[in-house]
Each structure stands twice: as C-alpha cells, then as structure tokens.
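pasting for the record
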Amino acid sequence: MNHERRRIRWGGLFAGLMTGVLVASAVPVVADIGEPVIQGAVNVVDKRTTLSGSDSGDAMLLVTNKAPSGSGIEVRVRDGRPPFVVNSAARVRKLNADRLDGRSSSAFLLKATYDRDRDRIVDDAERLDGLDSTAFVTKTGAWSCPGNSWVPSSAYSDYRTSGPLMAVGSGSASVFFRCAVALPHGVAVSSVAFTVQDSSANAGVECALYRTGLITGIGGTSQLAASLVTSGSPGATVLATDEIAFALIDNTRYAYYAGCTVVEDGWDTGIYGMTISYTAP
C-alpha cells in the first residue's frame, strides 16, 4: 500500500515538473542579475549584458541561422533611436544599407550614369531639386538674334533678305532695323557683338543696343553702349564692345532692343545677326 502511494507521489511530481517546463518556455524568463542566459527563451533583465574577451583571429560573437530564410540578428529599439552604437569608422564589407543620412538610393546620382569616367566628378545631372536645367539662369549665358529676324522701324521701308542676311531694298536709301531683346531679368550684360556685311566704299552699317523707359522717362531711349560703326569696306565683320553703360537688365522698368542703320548699296551692306553675352548674379 505504501509502495503504491510512493509511485503515485513521484508520478505526480514528474507531471508537475513537465507542466512547469512547458509553461515556463511560453513566457519571458525574468532572470536575476548574474544568472546565465537561457537558450530558446525570452530573457528579460534591466541591466547591460557585456561579452568581453580577446581573440585576434575571429569575431567574439558568431550567429549562424541555418534555416533557408530568416535573419541572423534582429535589433528592436524605439522610434528615433539608433539600432547600433559603434566606436569605429572602418568600412564594413558587404553591408547593404537601406538609407544614407535618412535618404534612400533614389536621392543620389548613380555612378554608372553620371560618372562614367570614374573621376569622382558628376558628368551631368538630369534634375536639381526636381527641376530641369531650363528652370534656372546659368551663371554665364548668351542671347542672339539672326539677321532675317530683324524688322525695319518703318512699314514704308524697302528691305530684302538673302539667307541670314538682312539688307536694304533698292527703294530706300537707308533703313533702321530693330530686333527685340529678351534677356533674363537681373542679369548683367558683359558684351555685345554685331555681325554685319560691309563691302561698300560708299555705304556702311551702324549698330547699338538700346533700352526704352517704361516707368520713369516713359518712351525715352538710351544706349547701353556707344554706337559701333563699320570703317572702310571690311566685308563680313564683327562690331563688338564690352563697355556697357547700363549693364543690369531690369525688365520691370525698361524694354530692350538692338538697332542697326544700314545704308543701301545692294548686297554689299546688311546684317547677319547679333549676340549679347551676360552674367547672372
């Protein structure tokens, strides 16, 4: 009888231990400081755990996950907190990061596309802050007006064109031709150049850059540079100057145009066009 009671008592104790193990494995293990880490369980302790040692050949901690899928290490922190703290700036080989300084890879230029010669200098960029280059004023620039775009100041003037050359017709002795100038507001004119034709010993071409007042001195005209005049009969030539009196372009107060007076002598005198060079602030 006593023998049977002992068997029942030991059997109950074994069953109770197994039940305790199963229950313990399903809940976090709250360990006291100094107790060993329990494998296969959630260990909870409010104190730093440090692994310290010396091994010059291998890493001090190796985690291997032999499953077909799954991570090696999982680190969870509160929002805004770094998952790692390191004391070395050495490069970690094969480390694939999702972001750099909070930016994804789409925020950076690809070397294969924008640095093909691998000189660490960007060859060309498609956009800046989402804007195409046409949205910006370049630091330096130029603007031109071809000869066949010029118009006579008077509707009664006789003129003719031959390709890009604008010339005076046989019905007029001379004609003042104009070309409306459209420069970006705020740029500074650095030089102006007129390409003209003058193969005549008896006629010539005189050109200048002008502005007309729109707010004060309304309708008044002033020259941005002194008039440029052909001398002798140089043929196709360039009249240029970098001495600009009112270089800053103010489209809120002035309208700008180029003008050339051409004295008629057949196709020996005329205008091929003009170019204005400018700088942006």
